[in-house]
Write a structure and sequence with these properties.
catalytic activity
Amino acid sequence: MISRYLRVLASIKKKKKEGFTMSSPGVQLHIQKHHVVMDNGIVQVTLSKPDGIVTGIRYNGVDNLLEVLNKETNRGYWDLVWSAPGVKGGFDVIKGTCFEVIVQNEDQLELSFKRMWDHSLEGKYVPLNIDKRFILLRGSSGFYSYGIYEHLHGWPDFDLTETRITFKLRKDKFQYMAMADNRQRIMPFPEDRMPGRCQPLAYQEAVLLVNPKDPRLKGEVDDKYQYSCKNIDNKVHGWISFSPSVGFWQITPSDEFRSGGPFKQNLTSHVGPTTLAIFLSGHYAGQDLVPKWRGGEPWKKVFGPVYIYLNSGSTGDDPLVLWEDAKIKMATEVQSWPYLFPASEDFLKPDQRGNINGRLLVLDSFPNYVAVQV
């Protein structure tokens, strides 16, 4: 089995190399009335303009990997949950109001979709300037996204409960989810969570599958929280389509922009099929990990970039080898961090960063020091 995996992985690498050296054109941008299309000959990404919602991802002969039955605003998007102090939180799919081409050449495209805040929007939108960026590189089997959030001095107080990127994939194709070597499975369909096919359990997210479309899943429990993962282990997860053999992977190369530290748990993928890149969340921690801005405090933060990686296999290959390839690609992205290519000056490049080493001495409630090697 191992030798077969190595042969298939070698085949995938060979196809990628040949695709880059023989048929990979320069990156192109097509600007339409209501959409823009990034195209490098391997993957084609369509975004609404000026919203910056990912409405289509074309790859390996599939016109759209995202759920075509959903509205365009419910396919690939940045979102957040926020509230004014003492007010119930509101969910917001972030839509840009200003589109700008930041970088455009044969090797790279970087697009910006901004939503700027002013006091006329108080109470309607979170008091943040938000700049969503999307990057496509020449020869890349996928694309990157990052966001820049800014709260200016004197702006209203607010709480930010959650922010993330969400992708909703085609349920007729993506039915196998993988997030670790020992945590992967055929997933239920969304309909399996509807009345008549499931039995509600202790809370709304958990159901017992009593009449699933795939009889093999009968008697199992589905709960999106059972697919949670510690940040330190949450570097790659995603979905596999068996026909055609295609993988859709969300790769997070660094923990530096996620809240809660390495042992904080976050959601990954769940029935939909849905995949998430969560940057900030109160899950498993509550209000202690919800940042709160008071007294007009200024603040700026870069979330990401994360990488949406696509891969494919040949007819007859074991589709699970796509998971092995995704892990290899994840390791490459981790080694490449911090990236050199993001154009925003707010994303610090390697030569703008420092290092620290030594020991951190912590005095706890007992009369002992705890030494931690840094």
